[in-house]
Amino acid sequence: MRAFEGGVRRVIDIIGATVLLVLTLPVLLLVALWIRLDDGGPALYRQQRVGLNGRLFTLYKFRSMRLGCDDAAHRLQIAAELRGEDTSRGGSTKLEADPRVTPPGRFLRRTSIDEFPQLLNVLRGEMSLVGPRPSLEWEAAMFPPQFSERFSVRPGLTGLWQVTSRSTVGTLEMLQLDLEYLHKRRLTLDLWILASTVLVLIRPQGAR
Question: How far is the C-alpha of 40 from the C-alpha of 157, rounded, in Å?
Fold first, then answer.
């Protein structure tokens, strides 16, 4: 049964990612041009993330930050959240008024359009449409051992965390939601998450 669901899930990934790329291609080209015109830097951002069984892969996103930014503040925040500290400000755990974010980047993050290039990762088989958030290598090294199970499936473009909490919860709560998803993982749950993601994109509350 699990093998059958895995095959169906992969078919849904391929069809869904292909259809979304074709439908959104004009918008994605305009977004890429906007980013290039803003500061002359590359439109796409490539970053190493931890995937299935801990294997590294190159994740694609639209660049929402200035080039050459330091991530020290982000690392300190993740460490604090994993210690159970509340880092939320104004209902969000995202860094407030982050100077690294470009003007186009603020819009892209609020609407989640910066995530759309990850559809390429889905087609390549490195990600799924639904799954745990793809973690940075240094983040994964900081996660407590009880959350290692989250790497037993492909990371997702969307997931339970995104549709129930988004940036209103910290890293520890996000990891707990990842485990909740794994323990309840069914095709019906994936379809519910995909449908809920559409509503979240239409009403982007909790995003920064």
Answer: 27
Length of the chain: 208
Rounded CA-CA distance 183/146 in Å is 13
How far, in Å, CA of 107 to CA of 171, rounded? 23
**Furthest-apart CA pair in the chain: how many Å?**
50
The single-letter code of the amino acid at 130 is V
CB atoms within 10 A of CB 4: 9
**What stretches of 136-186 show up as alpha helix (H) in DSSP?**
137-142, 160-164, 171-184
Q: How far is CA 102 from the centre of its chain?
A: 19
CA dihedral of 73, 108, 19, 160, whole degrees rounded to 10: 50
Of 129, 131, 200, 191, which is closest to residue 167 (Cα–Cα)? 200
Angle, alpha carbons 146-91-96 (nearest 5°): 95
Q: Tokens 């909490």 map to which residue?
A: 165
List of residues 6+ apart from 40 with CB closer than 8 A: none
R_g of the chain computed on alpha carbons: 17
> Mean pLDDT by 10-residue block, N- to C-terminus, for the chain (208 residues)?
82 96 96 94 95 97 89 85 77 66 92 95 97 94 94 96 81 92 94 92 63
Token couple for 148: 């290692």
**DSSP tag of 89:** B
pTM for this prediction: 0.89
